[in-house]
Design brief:
It is a single chain. The chain is α/β, with parallel strands linked by helices. It has 2 domains: 185 residues, D-Maltodextrin-Binding Protein, domain 2, CATH 3.40.190; 99 residues, D-Maltodextrin-Binding Protein, domain 2. Helices cover 37% and strands 23% of the residues. Strands 1, 4, 5, 6, 7, 8, 9, 10 and 11 form a 9-stranded mixed beta sheet that branches. A two-stranded antiparallel ribbon has the order 2-3. Helix 4 packs across helix 10 and helix 4 runs antiparallel to helix 11. The longest helix is centred in the middle third of the chain and has 16 residues.
Length: 296
Amino acid sequence: MRARYIVPAFAAAAVLLLTGCVDNSTPATAPSGEASTIEADAAAVALLPEDIKSAGVLIIGTDAAYPPNEFKDEAGAPIGWGIELADGIAAKLGLTTEYQIASFDNIIPSITGGTVDIGESSFTDNLEREKQVDFVNYYNAGILWAAPSGSTIDPDNACGLTVAVQDNTVQDTDELPAKSAACVAAGLEPIESQPYGSQDEATNAVILGKADALSADSPVTLYAISKTDGKLAPVGESFDVAPYGITVEKDSELTKAVQAALQSMVDDGSYGKILDAWGVTDGGIDTITINAASNG
């Protein structure tokens, strides 16, 4: 449910220095290391396009600024449970990985332009995006709000509130505009959407009182809460559950190969171990599908 740019390292450091509130640079749980034990799956390898098989490398685009799904370790390398799934896909396909960390908005154009093989960046599969790329669906995520602990904020009755989000996420582009329009139509105050370039900034805005609440994908909200020493808590329940998908060039043979690799991970338990290690098991699925938005 993402789309945003990366805050340069020096800028992010400045934000944290000024606020001293939350820093997601270190994972709440250690990487599982599961991908390093995964062996190639012959059936998945057989589906690979010949050029990728010959190269031996899977080039993966990610915007590593969305903990715990995809973010950076202290050395600047991408980590997170989504990254570990991508590592596992490559292992199942008998390939090594090469990550290209980029603005979220540039990942799909990089796929359609042929400079990136797949995108792993918590993409929500929707009909509009399916016009450009195919999706291999691997997880179901809802939207979850958080507010200062003890707050009585209701996401279904938020007219007049200020809500922090990461810019260009589904929350920024779809959820809040729709809710705000409904408020105005009912003669109530609109919701003020307050977009930020990173989840840390959105979280800090609530802690500092600049926003009343934040809205993000459920695993992201829960992770953000875990980094605030009890300052924030979830409000309401998860809603608008939608599938995440690995993005692949439209009608590429690689789509079926990625599907087979992920299904093999589900079947051998490595998929579940990665989700367990990062505390995001609730959104796991048993059957890996393609283009769930259009195929239901």
